[in-house]
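If I may wish for something, please sit down with the protein I am sending here and say whether C-alpha cells and residues agree:
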Amino acid sequence: MRKNLLPGLLILVFILVSAEAAFPWGAATHAFLAKKIGRYYLTLDFQEIYGQLAPDLFNFNSELSSDPVLWAFTHGLPGNEGFMTVWEKATYRNYQKALAFGFVAHNDVWGADFTAHHQAQTIPAPADFPLVPGEIEPGYVVIKAVALNSDPTLNSHFESIGLHNDRPEHFRLRLKLCHYLVEAAGDLIIRRVDQNIGQNLITAAVVRDRKFVELLVQALNQPEYNQALIENEAFFRRLMIQYGALMVLPEFRAARALAESAAYFGLNLIKKEAGIEVPLEQAETIADYGLKKAIQLCAPDYLPEIRKTIEKVRLELRNHNIRY
C-alpha cells in the first residue's frame, strides 16, 4: 500500500468530520463562480468568494448539517429563503454587502447549488434517471453521480465489497460516494482553467472581514445557535485555507490527495451506514479509479454547465434585486 501524502492528511480532517449531506458544487467551483458573478474589484472579490463558500459552514458538522433551521438559513427550502436575511441585514460597513452578495448567490432554491442539485442547464437526465422528488433530482452533479455509479468497472468494485444497486439503501450510499467523487473531479477541472483558484481560496479565507460572523448571528437571530455559528465558521475558515493549499499543488498530487480523502470518507461512511468493513487499500483503489472516471465523465461539459450556471445566477440576482 502506498504511503499517504501530507496533503492527504490535510484534507483528511476535512473529510473525517464531514456530514452526510450532499455538497452540490465543490469549494473551488464556488470560488470560481463567485469570481465571475460578482464585481471585478479585487478587495470585494475575495469577500464575495468567502461569502459564497460560507453557506457550507455547517456541512462538516454531522449534528448540524441537516438541521432544518440552519439549512433554510444557509441554502433555503421551498417557501423558506432564510438566506435572504443575510442580504437584508448587511450594511455597507465591513464589506458586509460583498460577503452577503456571495452568500445569497450560493443558495439551493435558485442560486448556484440549484443547477448542481436540482436542474442541470446543459445536459438532460437520461431516460432511466432514478428521479425521487426532493431527494434525487436531475442536477448536473447528481446526473453525473448516477452515471458514475453505473460504470461497469466501478460497479464491480462496489459489488466486491458488498454494495449492490438492487438494494435501495446501498444505491443511496453508493450515490453519496459518487457525488463526492464528482464534486472533487469538478474542482480539479476548475483548477485546470484557473491556476490561481487555490490561492484565491486561501486569500479569501484569510482576509474575510472578521465582522462577518456578527452579520450571520444578527441575520439568523436565534441565540441558541450563536455559539454554533461562531465555532463552525472558525473551523470552516481553517478548512478552506487547507483546501486552498491542496489546490495549489500540481494536479497529480492534488488528485492523489483527493482520492485519499475519498477513500477515508468512503470506508467510514460504508461502515456507519452498511456495517461493512473495507480495507483502506481497497478503498483507495476504488477512490483512485472513481475519481479518474469522474473526471472523464465531467470533462466534456463541466465548464459549459458552470458558464450557464453563472448566467442563471446573475439573472436571478437581478430578479431578486441583489446588487450593490
User: Anything to note?
Assistant: Residues 29 and 320 are 23 Å apart (CA to CA). Residues 6-316 form one domain.
